Amino acid sequence: MNETNVTISANELLVLLGVVGIIGIIGGWLSHKIKIPDVVIYLLAGIIAGPIFFNFINVTSFPVANEIIVSFGSSFILYEGGREVKLKVLSEVKYTVALLATVGVVISMLIVGIGVYLIFGVPFIYCLLLGAIIASTDPASLIPVFSQVDIKKS
After folding, report:
1. Considering the entire predicted model, what is its pTM?
2. 3-state secondary structure labels for all residues of 6-35
3. What is the mean pLDDT of residues 60-78?
4. Where are the domains of the chain?
5. Of 122, 143, 137, which is closest to residue 80 (Cα–Cα)?
6. Quick one: angle between helices 124-136 and 138-148, nearest 10?
């Protein structure tokens, strides 16, 4: 078994985290200026800075740094989503939120799982696991979007 062990120095890790932080700050400022949800800008910035375009953040070269960035990013999304929730508003939409957090997550999990199974032919249990991972972040990422988009009552 041939294992490649790639290490990252503390300086490289700090520079990488600094680049991600600066991109995040600029993305947040830009999303505020052009009045679109910051999640959209963050996704685009990740695609541009990632291996598809400029390859500033190469996940194969620095798996430890990638793990730190993903852990911090998902923790921050959950924290920001929870911080933005106002209990008064939440009590008004509790049934909708409950449906999104239960039935919506199950439906998202099934759609992603079946899609991955049909497209890539991966064993179905792994497809459902991937769908559950993706679907569980939906409510946490939607809360900041709803706080930035003006939704009119009908």
Report:
1. 0.53
2. CCCCHHHHHHHHHHHHHHHHHHHHHHHHHC
3. 74
4. 1-84, 86-154
5. 143
6. 30
